[in-house]
């Protein structure tokens, strides 16, 4: 499944899904920004895309809207499942870390602040 506007700007299928050729950027990354209402110029600049590459991505999304939407929804579903899995798996661990006393950390922080104050006083 390859759609080519020109040799430099095409959409290819990789193990990551539909990808802008010559980049690691998937169409799902572009879809995230489109769904959030970002202007095309912002998307182009954020991902450092040429106008040709961005237009190729937008044209592909438009020409294959139903297919891309289905894949995008599947990607979002899988990401939510993965996030939930890791949140559940790490819940107890994160709770133990949060409950661990940090007295040594606080003492180091106070010492650092004192040194900064002394340095600032000497610079005046």
Commentary on this structure:
The protein is mainly α. It has one domain (3-90): Winged helix-like DNA-binding domain superfamily/Winged helix DNA-binding domain (Arc Repressor Mutant, subunit A), CATH 1.10.10. The protein has five helices and three strands, in the order βββααααα. The protein has helices at 27-35, 40-46, 51-63, 65-99, 103-123, and strands at 3-6, 9-14, 17-20. It has a three-stranded antiparallel beta sheet with strand order 1-2-3, covered by helices on one side. A hairpin with a 2-residue loop joins β1 (3-6) and β2. The longest helix is centred in the middle third of the chain and has 35 residues, at 65-99. The protein starts with a strand and ends with a helix. Mean pLDDT is 88; it is low at 1-9.
């Amino acid at each position: 499944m390859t759609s080519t506007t020109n040799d430099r700007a095409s959409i290819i299928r990789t193990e990551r899904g539909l990808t802008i050729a010559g980049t690691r950027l998937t169409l799902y990354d572009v879809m995230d920004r489109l769904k959030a209402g970002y202007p095309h110029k912002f998307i182009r600049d954020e991902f450092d895309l040429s106008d040709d590459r961005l237009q190729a991505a937008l044209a592909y999304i438009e020409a294959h809207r139903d297919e891309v939407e289905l894949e995008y929804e599947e990607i979002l579903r899988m990401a939510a499942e993965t996030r939930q899995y890791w949140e559940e798996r790490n819940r107890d661990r994160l709770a133990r870390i949060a409950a661990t006393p940090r007295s040594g950390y606080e003492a180091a922080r106070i010492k650092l602040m004192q040194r900064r104050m002394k340095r600032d006083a000497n610079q005046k």
